[in-house]
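Retry 2 of 3 after timeout on previous attempt. Resubmitting structure tokens to design endpoint.
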């Protein structure tokens, strides 16, 4: 006999309580405005879940920093465990798109010594590969294509020319039928002495001034 579709299943009830708990944490730690948008994304994610293991929460340690991470955010199933790790890969949605709309980003956290920041690469690598051209884009950012003979043709570096610690991102030209593809990369040094590599859609550059603050606010809600 088939179960009445209107009756809630055990996994669905667990998913609902899991989502409500996450919303409460986000509201308390990340601020009401940020939590509202992210919690909506969590609700959608919970509705799509079929694996009960995704409702677990893990304490993952990178360097000296502990993160309390919902398993559903970890893209690699092998990372869904407690303990020390040399990297942590997540996919999440944050209000960093145009007009503070939700935009999905991919994020990798690793020890700081394993990667160089985009700001460091601007001064020590990218500027030596700039072409003479300059392209228009998000207000406040300068776009400089990289020379094709460096093996990186079709890539553009976007940066804030007025800051001593500038926002810097490198973007590939998106495929015409996938304008929202995550073709931009940015690497930053986090306040917890780890580093993070982000991939995101080019339209996120419209909100570049809020990018780092939004990321840090979100990570603060995961730090233990």
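Retry 2 succeeded. Sequence:
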């Amino acid at each position: 006999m088939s179960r009445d579709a209107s009756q809630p299943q055990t996994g669905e009830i667990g998913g609902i309580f899991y989502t409500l708990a996450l919303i409460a944490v986000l509201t308390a730690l990340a601020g009401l405005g940020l939590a509202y948008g992210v919690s909506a994304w969590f609700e959608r994610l919970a509705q799509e879940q079929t694996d009960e293991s995704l409702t677990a929460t893990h304490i993952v340690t990178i360097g000296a920093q502990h993160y309390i991470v919902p398993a559903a955010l970890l893209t690699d199933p092998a990372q869904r465990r407690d303990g020390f790790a040399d990297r942590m890969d997540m996919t999440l949605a944050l209000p960093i798109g145009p007009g503070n709309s939700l935009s999905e980003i991919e994020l990798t956290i690793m020890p700081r010594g394993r990667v160089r920041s985009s700001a460091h690469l601007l001064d020590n690598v990218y500027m030596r590969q700039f072409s003479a051209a300059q392209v228009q884009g998000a207000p406040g950012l300068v776009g400089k294509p990289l020379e094709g003979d460096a093996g990186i043709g079709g890539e553009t570096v976007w940066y804030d020319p007025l800051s001593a610690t500038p926002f810097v991102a490198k973007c590939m030209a998106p495929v015409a039928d996938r304008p929202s593809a995550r073709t931009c990369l940015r690497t930053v040094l986090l306040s917890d002495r780890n580093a993070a590599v982000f991939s995101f859609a080019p339209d996120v550059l419209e909100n570049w001034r809020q990018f780092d603050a939004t990321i840090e606010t979100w990570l603060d809600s995961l730090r233990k």
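Attempt log closed. The chain has one domain: 56-220.
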